[in-house]
Design brief:
Residues 70-260 form the ABC transmembrane type-1 domain. Keywords: Cell membrane, Membrane, Transmembrane, Transmembrane helix, Transport. Belongs to the binding-protein-dependent transport system permease family. The chain has one domain (54-273): MetI-like fold (Orthogonal Bundle). The chain has 15 helices and no strands. It has 275 residues and is mainly α.
Length: 275
Amino acid sequence: MNNLRPTRTYVSSAILWLYSSFTLFVLGYMTYQSFRSKKELLSNTFGWPDVFGFANLKKLFAEADFLRYLFNSAWILIATLAAIIMLSSMVAYGIGKYRFRLKGAVLIYFLIGLMFPVQLGIVPIFLLIRDMGLLNSQWGVALVLASGLSMPVFLLTTFFEKLPNDLYESAKIDGAGEWTTFIRVMFPLASPVIFSICIIMSVQIWNQFFVPLIMLQSEDNKTIPLMIMKFTNNLMYNIDLAMVGSVMATVPILILFFLFSGKVLEGVASGGVKG
């Protein structure tokens, strides 16, 4: 059996390398095509370009009003992350540091949240957001996305459970109340986990398509994924904008994730095995 483990490791590594290589090829090819004119994209798709420049990028900012979509996406991202971190840290601290009845049921509740996507409950969610007067509002999108607390709560709960009680007792001896203990002692200690949650959730929120599609009708409030959908609806006419828009939507967030991938792994490990 021991001889099979290296073989399985090599097979798994080979599959991951193939998948990663294919993904990088697609991203590189998309980036390459974004520098080409629409005429060459349609008539000389796989050939070497005669014109290679930033005309598509300039067109994206000048004609497609990319900054407006960028601002909308960034605003929803910041508002959602702030709500997720605030709510999940307080919930996880309460679950991790206190003993109470039905504690296991509360954890199961968040576990169920990991199993069911938002699409399954979109009808009641839509009606609720409409009745709150937040339909076609970025506040409504941020509120729906901020309800995805399951993964952050699990990571932070594990972290707070593993923290030594001496820290909590020392804060109490110094006269700190519950809120002060949480804000000044416990929350800063959880910063590696919180940083990892921010990076992981940022990728999901930035690329979110379904919730903004349902909640936002006005063009002034739409996000970058909806802008790309608008281009792809008439792809032959907007293929140049679709290419450069996809690059601007995908590559920056991937670079951010790659740069901080070490911090992400460190934070996840802290949330899982810190003792």
